[in-house]
Amino acid sequence: MADTFIKAEQLSEKQSEYMKLIAEIMEIRKRGEKPLAFIRTYGCQQNVADSEKIKGMLAQAGFDFADSPDDADFILFNTCAVREHAEDRVFGNVGALKNLKRRHPQILIALCGCMMEQEHIANCIYNSFPFVGLVFGTHSLHHFPELLYSALVDGKRVFERGNDDKKIYEGFPVRRDGNFKGWLPIMYGCNNFCTYCIVPYVRGRERSREKDIILSEAHNMITAGFKDITLLGQNVNSYGKTLEHPVTFAELIREIDEIDGDYWLRFMTSHPKDCSKELIDAIANGTHISKHLHLPFQSGSDRILKAMNRHYDRKKYLETIAYAKEKIDGLSLTSDIIVGFPGETYEDFKQTLSLIREVEFTSLFTFIFSPRKGTPAEKFDDPVSAEEKGKWFQELLDVQEEIAAKRCASMVGQQERVLIEGVKEKTGELNARTSGNIIVELQGDRSLVGSFQNVKITKARNWILKGELI
């Protein structure tokens, strides 16, 4: 047995009892015919998955859901700590609720998620936003009903953070936001401790869900008609290392891929140091696995990668990419980049540009370095001005735009299988996505949303394709 193995715990009957008690309380406190909750989620897909569990528990406690906080009896913001911009948005939007709370004192306002696991943030909320009645961190999700009940009954502010018991809890009721695209968490936490990243501090160490539980959930989603399923983890390539009987991520996706059905299987996020040939072979040989690999490299400079504590170098990354391109037909590659990491010079940045030109990514998620309180990089010397970093950032965008335009242009005339995801309200066009995660816009009936269709690519813009139904 691995010394880090943690047995999964079922959501307790005690929490189910609290849901029943909350339903009774809300029958008295509700403003309308039915108690309404408003949930706003910031940040990554893992936060979205957490919010779906919270919605599941609220639904079991008798809540329906509002489209606006103005109509809600319970308001919850699920927060993200990865970028400063996300934190600023939370503070601004919470502040805007002050007048609503004044008009309707019985409303309960709550905050949860990664920001709330940071002591300085929780203290700021406590001191500056007295109308916020419930605050809890990522490690308290499994007893959210108990916390909500306490806030409703006692009338006192409830704050809970930092109580990581290193367990995985199963048995959550889930209310999914969609009916054909869905998120399936396979693990939680991170062991990598990149010097710029707050995630290991707010989500804890890696913990993997049992393989059989994941397979059962995947089967249920496929049976229910989900067409696009994304496996989630801070580093999915590390999946299975903490289990009593270790399983590799490649083994997991091969077993999910064997489930009958008409669906695509995606995953995020992969860490380059753990991206194995076994995983690439599984993608190449898969029936349902998307031919899309999101592999963040962050910087093309070995000096900066070392300062970031990324545990790979430029050569290792490019060798992994070369193997993936060799094995996977029609591979679409995307990545993350941080511009202006403390100590980065323009010569370091040019190495990032050269890597982008060599790989020719389909698209990139690019960020200017944002220091996170409590991380090592917060204290690194950072002599380059924000103005200079902005210039580098624009140079990177220009290079990637040229590459993306070239790639999209090469797809004109091809046939692609796409999933119709929605309708553009302004134009009435359908929004679709390829297996390689490229957006296609086309004319068609709204009834096609949620279905796979074959299209011919007729036109290319820098990031988006135009197509027509075949």
User: How many strands, which pairing sense, and closed or not: the largest β-sheet?
Assistant: 6 strands, parallel
pLDDT average, as an integer? 94
Overall form: globular
- Total beta-strand segments: 21
For the biggest β-sheet, the strand order reads 3-2-4-5-6-7
CATH superfamily membership of the domain at 11-160, which one? Answer: Response regulator
Strand content: 15-25%
Number of helices: 14
Pick out the low-confidence regions: 1-6
CATH class assignment of the domain at 11-160: Alpha Beta
Distance N to C terminus: 54 Å
Tell me what the CATH architecture of the domain at 11-160 is. Answer: 3-Layer(aba) Sandwich
Helix content percent band? 25-40%
CATH topology group of the domain at 11-160: Rossmann fold
- Roughly how many Å is the radius of gyration? 23 Å
Helix/strand/pairing category:
alpha/beta
